[in-house]
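It would be a great kindness if you could assist me with a short task in structural biology. The matter concerns a single protein, recorded as an amino acid sequence and a row of backbone structure tokens. Could you please explain, in whatever detail you think fit, how the structure tokens follow from the sequence? Thank you for your consideration; the sequence and its tokens are set out here:
___
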Amino acid sequence: MSNAAKVTRRPLIIASIMLATFMVAIEATIVATAMPRIVGELGGFTYYSWVFSAFLLAQSTTTVIYGKMSDVFGRKPVLVGGTALFLVGSVLCGFAWSMGSLILFRLLQGLGAGAITPVTMTVIGDLYKLEERGRAQGMMASVWATSAVIGPLAGGIIVDHLSWAWIFWLNLPFGVLTILGFVLFLRESIQPRQVRIDYTGAGLFSVAIVSLLVILTETDGNGWVLGGLALLFLVAGWLFLWQERRAPEPIISLELWGRRLVATSNIATLLAGMALIGLTTILPVYVQGVLGRSPITAGFTLSMLVFGWPLAVMLSQRLYRAFGVRRTLRVGSLLFPVGATFLLFLTPQTHPVVAGVGAFIMGFGMGLISLTTIAVVQDSVEWSMRGSATASIIFARNLGSTIGATALGAILNIGIAHFGSGALAAGVHDVLNQPEGLAQLASDPSVRDVFDKALHWTFLGVVAMAVLTFVTIWLIPIAAKSGAPRKLEPSEAVPH
């Protein structure tokens, strides 16, 4: 294909990528806004966090695999196949009849979403020269900012006036247009290349992580069952490490992850992912159940997080020039726990704006953390390892989100049992398992008090993860006079 033809199609391909990005971006706020209503109709509040964990688990375990598949089979078939799988999962989520079925279909959704983020990032790298990517980066950041506003509004309107199923079915028109755009406009010449995909490693990793998630979720489970799951986690984890040492194309390069800069960046990103997912899953519940506000208000409170992130991305290059990379990263790491601390001061009488301010500060800090860690990791390795280094950061963030959603959900359930003293705890779950449960909970002082105290335990967990993120980032070995890193692909620079 001639360069002229490539440039002519470029706006249409970018439009398709923006649609795909919007579809994934809006998923975060719209589902979080509607989940209290969904769990009220389906029941099973104990498994609330699994709706998020299942999606993130599937997405994180397939990200590296899809990236390698795009090198073997081409970008277009992987993107089209992943988007189609995401749409199938979305349709089935709308027909879910129980929390178990919803979790299963969210897992299917995540399997499709795992293809969208890394491969769209690769396509942009294929289309644009390094010096041309700044404008594309700004456009992608604007997609995330727009979704931060539209997602909560759409989620609130849908749960108030339509069936909650439409929050998933809303993906259909965007997904269909995305597939048509890739099919019609994305052209590529595939160079045959032998790449061995580490399916065994991905399978062992999934078994280990699922075992860990079940242990964290089943806080009241049988001791023998939990012991068996712990043994399964240890065995699968050991086999995974053994497999990665011998695999020609490992899902995780242990040599790469062992480098100090990469290791500290990935650990910081994993901890940050744990803190952020806690905010995403818990804050809408607090605003509705304790503050007694509407789903729309709860969604807009959360949207401040997603709005702060791309704003930091758009300002990052100016901050690098003014203060340097190291200072910018450390300021971002400081903003992260500062924003999280706002959560500790929330009371039933607090205005939602306080929660929104804390979410915005955390989002802005995370924007600087995410963008800068990716940049310094990429610039620390040779060109042939840059894709793996980038994938390691995305992988770590998704893994942190997966573990964080489950761990903080378990803390919430433990808190309800602790402060509810048996019968009252059962009463809290009974209220939450009703369609209008959060509204009823906010009007009952005794039940609301139990829920408020339990949620503050999870807020303490978020703050602890944010503080650990801050500490870990100061251990990243960045030279004091680091210059501004290269421009990143838009998909690298915004939340996934």
Remarks:
- Residues 198-248 form one domain.
- The longest helix spans residues 3-42.
- The chain has two domains: 3-197+249-493, 198-248.
